[in-house]
Write a structure and sequence with these properties.
The chain is built from six helices and seven strands. Strand 2 and strand 3 form a beta hairpin. It has a single domain, classed as 3-Layer(aba) Sandwich (Rossmann fold), CATH 3.40.50.1470. The mean pLDDT is about 95. With about 190 residues, the protein is an alpha/beta fold. About 35% of the residues lie in helices and about 20% in strands. It has a seven-stranded mixed β-sheet.
Length: about 190
């Protein structure tokens, strides 16, 4: 069984530690914990993880957040991965910092990366793992907030949150969406 694990973010050092790049940070943590490395490839950096008889293709699209659909569709086709085995990791300002929420389908929730993936795939029937980044911003300053760095107290909690998120991804591939949602959502 093959799975495509897409961490959404923007390329470039100026975005590296921003809230909007939590998807990249999560797949980086999974790769590091598994002692695998990303390599530059067409439309993104990829790494391949073998775990309990499954293959997880990790992807950090190089298309920028708002054009992520092209890279996602390319790797689904190239790797012959069913859409039901796709999980997209995003930031979510509607959730308090560190809250994890896995869903099997749904709207884009105002997230431009998800919006483009839904547009390119033609449907919203794929798993998305949302990592809460909070909403501590003044009205009208949402873009500055998501493109800002995590606060020091959030950075102190980041290691544990990244570890929990990587457990969720592996669980998604081994015990399935429903059981993973029951075991992890909101915890």
């Amino acid at each position: 069984m093959k799975y495509l694990v897409v961490g959404l973010g923007n390329i470039g050092s100026e975005y590296e530690n921003t809230r909007h790049n939590i998807g990249f940070k999560i797949v980086d943590a999974l790769a590091k914990a598994s002692t695998i490395f990303f390599e530059p490839n067409k439309l993104g950096d990829t790494a391949s993880l073998k775990f309990k008889g499954r293959t997880f293709i990790l992807l950090k699209p190089s298309t920028y957040m708002n054009l992520s659909g092209k890279a996602v569709n390319y790797y689904l086709q190239k790797e012959k991965i069913k859409q039901e085995n796709l999980i997209v990791i995003t930031d979510d300002i509607a959730l308090p910092f560190g809250t994890l929420r896995l869903k099997g389908k749904g709207s884009d929730g105002g997230h431009n990366g998800l919006k483009d993936i839904i547009k390119v795939l033609g449907n919203a029937n794929f798993a998305r793992l949302r990592f809460g980044v909070g909403s501590e911003f003044v009205k009208g300053k949402q873009i500055n907030y998501v493109l800002g760095d995590f606060a020091p107290e959030e950075q102190n909690q980041m290691g544990e949150r990244l570890e929990k998120t990587t457990e969720m991804i592996k669980s998604f591939g081994t015990i399935g969406l429903g059981r993973t949602m029951s075991n992890f959502n909101g915890k």
